[in-house]
Structures are given as C-alpha cells and as structure tokens.
Design goal:
247 residues, alpha/beta, Metallo-beta-lactamase, Chain A, 7-stranded mixed β-sheet, 8 helices, binds zinc ion
Length: 247
C-alpha cells in the first residue's frame, strides 16, 4: 500500500453565505514539517479550533483571492497568534497587495492592537504562472475568471512529492487543465448545479468536461443551497466540513 503522507483537513468548504451551515473556505494541509492553510475565510479561526488546530500548527496561509470568505479570517488567526505570544515566523502568501489589505483589516477590526508589530509575519506575493519556492513546498498560481478586483487565482501546490491543486473561485476556464494536470488531488469549486453565474462553475458544465481532466482525484467545494440539495445527482466526490483527505 502506498504511504499517505499529506493530510488535508477540510475546515470549511462553504460558500460566502454559509449555505447549509458550512464554514467559509479553509483547507488545512499537514505534510509533517510543512503545515499551512489554503484560504482562510472569515469563519476559519473557530473552525480550526473545533479541530484542535492552533496558530502554532500553522506555518503559512495561502490566499487564492481577496474575498472575505477566502481571506477574511486572516486578521483573527493573526490576532490569536499575537495573544498567544507566537514567536515563530508566519508566512502569508497572496496575490499582490496582501500586506496592505491585511494591515488595513486589522486596523479596522482591532484598532490599536498592533498585531503585526507583535508577530513575525512574512508577506509574500505570487504572480500568475511563476513558481514560488517555499521551505519544503512550492506554489504556482494561475489566473482564473472571477471578480477581477479580487485578483482571483487557482493554486497548484507541490508538497512531499504530492500535487494538490485548487481552482479558487472561477467560471469555466481552460486554465483548470494545466492547473490540475496529473494532480494527486484537485479541489474544484462547483458553486451551482445548473445556474449560470458569472465567476463560478456549475456542475452540468463541469460534468461535460470531466473526461478532459488528468488529475487522479477531483473533489468539489463551495456549494450554494441548490447544489447542496442536488448532491445525489452529482457523480464527483463532494467535500463536507470536518473531513480529512489523505493524499
Ligand atoms: Zn470569491
């Protein structure tokens, strides 16, 4: 049997509206010495604590785009780390402008607490297509089709000889093919079942393209209420909060 050495814990796989009571997007990737969050939506801190994951268990946070259900939890995670006198470095990896946005959010939400001054936070930015080499893992971002001002990206992550790909939020784009090529796990948004909504995928259009994907395992995320009602008709694995995947 092949050894599974990367754990992906689904802290939240809901949409922006908490449909079905699901938490906002947050995936905890634990590859032994390398542990990070992929997205950190507004509800992430209580979600992490439900699973006993503390700030010290997180070395980095990767943000796919600047929407609150994907990065609104970062100020809370950092505040929590500051309160617990974290001394380890935390990396926050995002599209261009992450440091400015997160500093502004902290100032609005917790004025005067000087969270960033108390922590060792390293802000890193990725650009589309370039590979960002990190400590024991790497990241490649792809431009996807979503609200442009949120700087939307899909992410292709290599860690412990495994590839984990994540669509971020997006309408159909052929970029999903290189993004997820031969990936061990591809987490793909599928916000809707049949509704055509700009900036998101629906299952019926994704289903038509399934034969063209080369990933080894695809799982769907980010469901609206109609999609949640239709899961019996969906022939791709679907995420739910709290589950663990082994890659
Ligand atoms: Zn979004």
């Amino acid at each position: 049997m092949e050894m599974s050495n990367v754990q992906v814990k689904i802290i939240g796989c809901g949409d922006a509206f908490g449909s079905g009571g699901r938490l906002n997007t947050c995936f905890y990737v634990n590859a032994g010495p390398v542990r990070f969050l992929v997205d950190c939506g507004a509800t992430s801190l209580p979600g992490l604590k439900q699973h006993g994951i503390n700030a010290d268990d997180i070395d980095a946070i990767v943000i796919s785009h600047f929407h609150g259900d994907h990065y609104g939890g970062v100020p809370f995670v950092l505040l929590d780390a500051a309160i617990h006198s974290r001394t380890k470095k935390m990396q926050v990896i995002s599209p261009v402008g992450g440091q400015r946005r997160i500093a502004a959010l902290l100032d609005l939400l917790y004025p005067g607490t000087e969270v960033l001054e108390k922590l060792d936070v390293e802000f890193l930015e990725y650009g589309a297509n370039e590979v960002l080499n990190l400590e024991g893992w790497s990241l490649q971002a792809f431009d996807v089709l979503h609200s442009e001002r949120a700087l939307p990206h899909g992410l292709r992550i290599e860690v412990a000889d495994k590839v984990i790909a994540y669509s971020g939020d997006t309408s159909w784009t052929d970029a999903l093919f290189p993004l997820s090529a031969d990936a061990d796990l591809f987490i793909c948004e599928c916000n809707f079942f049949d509704l055509q909504v700009k900036g998101h995928l629906n299952y019926l259009e994704l289903e038509k393209r399934l034969p063209e994907f080369s990933c080894k395992r695809m799982v769907l995320t980010h469901f609206d209420p109609q999609m949640l009602d239709m899961l019996d008709e969906v022939h791709v694995e679907c995420l739910s909060d709290g589950i663990e995947l082994f890659v």
